[in-house]
Amino acid sequence: MKTEVxxxxxxxxxxxxxxxxxxxAYPMREVDGWRISTExxxxxxxxxxxxxxxxxxMLDEFACFLSDEDIHTxxxxxxxxxxxx
Length: 85
Prior knowledge:
Distance between the termini: 27 Å
Order of helices and strands: EEEHHEHH
Radius of gyration: 13 Å
Low-confidence stretches: 1-6
Oligomer: single chain
């Protein structure tokens, strides 16, 4: 999995990298060492986790899953509040 260091958002839009799961790309951000992705990936991993060890391992790598819009628009500070709540 590739990761990208967050840069300051331009026009309220924060850059993401992609994580690939069975050929499908899902947006991912890394905030202070925490990995965050979209709810779509979270649902897919939870569905597959009873059957696939890879899904269980990936599910453990993510701190939280956000909506497609939130992963791009929330600041690092806002995401950290969600993780720590």
